[in-house]
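Dear support,

Our group has been running a series of protein-ligand predictions, and this particular one with zinc ion is the one our PI (initials K.S.) wants archived with full inputs and outputs. We had some confusion internally about which version of the output was final, so please treat the block below as the authoritative record. The input we submitted was:
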Amino acid sequence: MAKNKNLPAGRQGNNPDLLAKCSVCEGDLEEGDMVVLEDQDQRTTFHVTCPKCRTSSIVLISNSQAGMVSLGLATDLDSEEVRTKFFTNSVSSDDVINVYQFLSGYEGEFSGLIRS
Ligand SMILES: [Zn+2]
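Confirmed final output from the archive:
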C-alpha cells in the first residue's frame, strides 16, 4: 500500500508530514509545526509554519486516481484562524479547492511544496 514513492522508509502511512518544504525559504517543514485541519480518507489538509522563516502555509494532500497531489500556499492566517474561517462546518472537496482559490487567486503550479 505504499502510495507515495517519495516517502522515506518508515514514513509510509497516513501521515502527510515530511512531504512538504517551505515555499518561501525551501526549509523542511516539520511535523511538530503542523496542525491538521481536516483528515479524510483521501485527503488531508493541514496548516504548517516554517521553522526557519515562520511563513505559514496551508497544505492539502490528496490521493486521487492520478496519484498523490500536494497543494500548498502561503497564508498570513494562523491555524486557529484558518480553522475558524474554513473548517467549522464540514466541507466538500470542492469547498477546499475554493478555499485555495479564494486565498491565493493562484492559477499556476502548486508544486513548490513537493519534495521530489
Ligand atoms: Zn520558510
